[in-house]
Specification:
The protein is of the alpha/beta class and 375 residues long. The protein is 41% helix and 16% strand. It contains 16 helices and 14 strands. The longest helix is centred in the C-terminal third of the chain and has 22 residues. It is globular. The chain starts with 6 loop residues before the first strand and ends in a 15-residue tail after the last helix. The structure holds 1,3-dihydroxyacetonephosphate (13P) and iron/sulfur cluster. 1,3-dihydroxyacetonephosphate binds next to loops.
Length: 375
Amino acid sequence: MSTVIPIRDVEYQHPLASISASACDTRHTWARVPPEPSQAERAVLKDRIRRLLKERNAVMVSHYYVHPDLQDLAEETGGIVSDSLEMARFGRDHPARTLVVSGVRFMGETAKILSPEKRVLMPDLDATCSLDLGCPVDEFSAFCDQHPDRTVVVYANTSAAVKARSDWLVTSSCAVDIVRALKEKGQKILWAPDKHLGSYIQRETGADMVLWNGSCIVHDEFKAFELEALKKQYPQARVLVHPESPADVVALADAVGSTSGILKAAHEMNAKEFIVATDNGMMHKLRTLNPDKVFIEAPTAGNSATCKSCAHCPWMAMNGLLGLAQVLDSGANEVHVDPALGLRARVPIDRMLAFTAALKTGHSAGSLVPDIGAV
Ligand code: 13P
Ligand code: SF4
């Protein structure tokens, strides 16, 4: 099978360029999306992966946005397909010696930070994220230094170094609960990197927040005007939106949630049709779990469309069966995190995991936050 993989040019807004006097705030990067294998090749690759997982004492940890093959194979072989929070928890708690993370780089790094003794492999180590790219640690540290009185809360979609500079880590499934608890303890927040998620949390909690100016190239593209038109076309449909989307899109939602929150809403809501504003990799799980319901992609096209991603993350798309089989075979593409940095980055991750675990067992959120200013 050919391994020549075309490189795709990707544009993203760079938050620092827009702050400085630079004329253009658009940066270029790239993604390398593997070609789709044929049916026959897929069957062969899946068999090879099943065998290698056993031989290598390895388990698959996949995100909802990766190719359906990598989601189904993960579940079929005793791994997990999930959101970034549950991926982190599963990888930490699973006894396998090797974790194969299909997703983007920060997910592999989080797995390594939580399990430094395990081998963490990824199909492609260059699978990044526009939020991570748009939040370099030096500039982020300088931003933190300007606000020493604020508790630093960062999104999981960041480098290990940015996590190490933070007090709390959150994912979109627990961000509102954690910030609300910090606010109730009188803490003011410095938030990074996603400006849309940050302003959503601010609206939901009323917390005093300063925001970094990053965005996700996938969710930033959803268009409110065109979504309103689609709603008129499907008047019975309920609208499910990921909070990395712009505020005018969030305002049209019947439910706002993380990837797992969207799945839960689709399952629980008494409707037959849904318009979904998140990466279209989610459609696989939504349709498999709700075969009697119809899921329609929210629009990214329209007058102001740039279609940088067309609702599918170019870096999530870098994960494929061939890459997975190759890394299991060779042990290549191992994720490394400097051990000292990892120890520091683990502090905010552990806080998030302890907070969310305790919340599930009925503890009040406020009791899970230390009684001090910036922690
Ligand atoms: P979740 O934390 O909801 O899995 O989302 C991660 C992500 O990258 C969304 O774009
Ligand atoms: Fe990052 Fe957006 Fe891709 Fe998620 S979908 S990994 S936030 S670029």
